[in-house]
Amino acid sequence: WAGSELEFDGKKFIVMKESDIIAKEA
After folding, report:
1. CB of 1 within 8 A of CB of 16?
2. Which residue has the higher pLDDT, 25 or 8?
3. Which residues, 6 or more positions from 20, have their beta carbon under 8 angstroms from its beta carbon?
4. Total number of domains constituting the chain
């Protein structure tokens, strides 16, 4: 599951599930 990508405060987040947010450096 590729998940959804968000950008927040200059970082990229991959949201795999509602409760799981993995922060990735942009």
Report:
1. yes
2. 8
3. none
4. 1
Tell me which amino acid residue 20 is.
D
Residue whose tokens read 């927040």:
8
- CB neighbours (10 Å) of residue 14? 15
Range of the domain at 25: 1-26
Q: What is residue 14's predicted lDDT score, i.e. its pLDDT?
A: 67
Report the alpha-carbon distance of residue 6 to residue 2 in Å, rounded. 12
Global model pTM greater than 0.70: no
DSSP the chain: ---EEEEETTEEEEESSSS-EEEE--
